[in-house]
Amino acid sequence: MNSYKFISVTVIKDDGTKQLRFINYDHIIQVYEENENVFIELTEYTTYKIEVTNIHTFMDRFIR
């Protein structure tokens, strides 16, 4: 049986509204910070700007 791991993130959409999403760990290519904003890039090259205080706080969520 497959066991998928998801992480919840609040995505900031282009119109400025916020939306809660659950993203599969296996689909994340990279997480990066640009102009004091944190972004998640997925395998299909979709990029989400996320609400977070800083990239280190966000990446701590992946440590088990």
**Quaternary structure state of the chains depicted:** single chain
Structural class: mainly beta
Q: Helices and strands, in N-to-C order?
A: EEEEEH
The total tally of domains equals 1
- Tell me the β content: over 45%
On the 0 to 100 scale, the average pLDDT is 89
Number of strand segments: 5
For the biggest sheet, the summary is:
3 strands, antiparallel
Number of helices, counting only DSSP H or I runs of 4 residues or more: 1
The percent of residues in helical segments reads under 10%
Evaluate the radius of gyration.
Answer: 12 Å
Shape verdict: globular
Contiguous uncertain segments of 5+ residues:
none
Alpha-carbon distance between the termini?
A: 21 Å
**Strand arrangement in the largest pleated sheet:** 3-4-5
Structural account:
The protein is mainly beta and 64 residues long. It has one helix and five strands. The chain has one helix at 55-59, and strands spanning 6-12, 18-24, 28-34, 37-42, 47-50. The chain starts with 5 loop residues before the first strand and ends in a 5-residue tail after the last helix. The mean pLDDT is 89.
Question: What layout of secondary structure does this protein have?
Answer:
Layout: E1 6-12, E2 18-24, E3 28-34, E4 37-42, E5 47-50, H1 55-59
Antiparallel strand pairs: 1-2, 3-4, 4-5
Summarize the structure.
With 64 residues, the chain is mainly β.
Comma- or semicolon-separated keywords:
64 residues; mainly beta; 3-stranded antiparallel sheet; two-stranded antiparallel ribbon; 1 helix; 5 strands; 8% helix; globular
